[in-house]
Amino acid sequence: MANRGPSYGLSREVQEKIEQKYDTELESRLVDWIIIQCGENTEHPPPGRQHFQKWLMDGTLLCKLINSLHPKGKEPIPKITESKMAFKQMEQISQFLKAAEIYGIRTTDIFQTVDLWEGKDMAAVQRTLMALGSEAVTRDDGCYRGDPAWFHRKAQKNRRGFSEEQLRQGQNVIGLQMGSNKGASQSGMTGYGIRNEWADLTQERLNEPNNPIFILGLV
């Protein structure tokens, strides 16, 4: 883990709230998946947030993980190297994040490099890995390894296809509906299209034979 000074005051309270979001049970599931997905020779880390962070912080496993979700020969990260140099580790984390976004992970579900490398928000790292697993299970393209029940399958869009003839008929129906109002009058209608009953009643009284206004021929 990168060396950081102690947190004080408000920053410490914020950090504690972030750490409370970390899920130890989810950690175990993610570790099992990454080991199966990347290969049985992958080392199993001791349990705990700090160990999980140290296990992933050089970016090597993350790059192997995203590569394993693609067919052979189409891996997004062609060169993966184990390095003790900080800039190289952060570069590989950034490569993973970029490949994950291209794979289909929403920007809002992707953690920042410092969230992992400095261990600032390991809950965000878990969220990204969960979204990645969910996308892989949903694709069902043969690249996912592990128990499909570990991740929820995303809802598929129900797209309906219409032929040109069907679209043309729909336009004709809309045209007929629009033409059905020809000759309609807005007389006696309010601003919301509701007939004003008071106006009707007033008109009827004006038309009565005994009405002085009617006798004078003013209506």
Automatic annotation (TrEMBL):
Keyword Phosphoprotein: yes
Organism classification: Eukaryota, Metazoa, Chordata, Craniata, Vertebrata
Listed PANTHER family: CALPONIN, TRANSGELIN-3
CDD domains, per database record: CH_TAGLN3 (cd21281)
Keywords annotated in UniProt: Phosphoprotein
Superkingdom of the organism of origin: Eukaryota
Family the UniProt entry places it in: Belongs to the calponin family.
Family matches, as Pfam families: Calponin, CH
Domain called Calponin-homology (CH): residue spans: 24-136
Gene3D superfamilies xref list: Calponin-like domain
BP GO annotations: actin filament organization
Organism whose genome encodes this protein: Podarcis muralis
GO terms under cellular component: actin cytoskeleton
InterPro entries, per the entry: Calponin-like, Calponin_repeat, CH_dom, CH_dom_sf, SM22_calponin
Molecular-function GO term, any one: actin filament binding
Name of the featured protein: Transgelin
